[in-house]
Amino acid sequence: MKARVHVMLKNGVLDPQGEAVRHALGSLGFAGVEGVRQGKVIELDLAEGTSEDTVKEMCEKLLANTVIESYSVEMV
């Protein structure tokens, strides 16, 4: 069993990496990109029977900084 956790900065939090990507895309000739938000994806290999609630607890305690980041969990 696997879980995929998507972590992104919350709206209103400055994203310097996203801004650097947006600028680089413009420099490479890709017009029309008005904003970029960069995040991370964490894939977990889990023992059978591990619940989504357990994965959310992992996010709250370690995987996401919930002050500035939001997350979503996808069980696959």
TrEMBL record:
<dbReference type="Pfam" id="PF02700">
    <property type="entry name" value="PurS"/>
</dbReference>
<keyword id="KW-0547">Nucleotide-binding</keyword>
<dbReference type="InterPro" id="IPR003850">
    <property type="entry name" value="PurS"/>
</dbReference>
<dbReference type="GO" id="GO:0006189">
    <property type="term" value="P:'de novo' IMP biosynthetic process"/>
</dbReference>
<dbReference type="InterPro" id="IPR036604">
    <property type="entry name" value="PurS-like_sf"/>
</dbReference>
<comment type="subunit">
    <text>Part of the FGAM synthase complex composed of 1 PurL, 1 PurQ and 2 PurS subunits.</text>
</comment>
<comment type="similarity">
    <text>Belongs to the PurS family.</text>
</comment>
<comment type="function">
    <text>Part of the phosphoribosylformylglycinamidine synthase complex involved in the purines biosynthetic pathway. Catalyzes the ATP-dependent conversion of formylglycinamide ribonucleotide (FGAR) and glutamine to yield formylglycinamidine ribonucleotide (FGAM) and glutamate. The FGAM synthase complex is composed of three subunits. PurQ produces an ammonia molecule by converting glutamine to glutamate. PurL transfers the ammonia molecule to FGAR to form FGAM in an ATP-dependent manner.</text>
</comment>
<keyword id="KW-0963">Cytoplasm</keyword>
<dbReference type="GO" id="GO:0004642">
    <property type="term" value="F:phosphoribosylformylglycinamidine synthase activity"/>
</dbReference>
<dbReference type="GO" id="GO:0005737">
    <property type="term" value="C:cytoplasm"/>
</dbReference>
<keyword id="KW-0658">Purine biosynthesis</keyword>
<keyword id="KW-0067">ATP-binding</keyword>
<dbReference type="GO" id="GO:0005524">
    <property type="term" value="F:ATP binding"/>
</dbReference>
<comment type="pathway">
    <text>Purine metabolism; IMP biosynthesis via de novo pathway; 5-amino-1-(5-phospho-D-ribosyl)imidazole from N(2)-formyl-N(1)-(5-phospho-D-ribosyl)glycinamide: step 1/2.</text>
</comment>
<protein>
    <recommendedName>
        <fullName>Phosphoribosylformylglycinamidine synthase subunit PurS</fullName>
        <ecNumber>6.3.5.3</ecNumber>
    </recommendedName>
</protein>
<keyword id="KW-0436">Ligase</keyword>
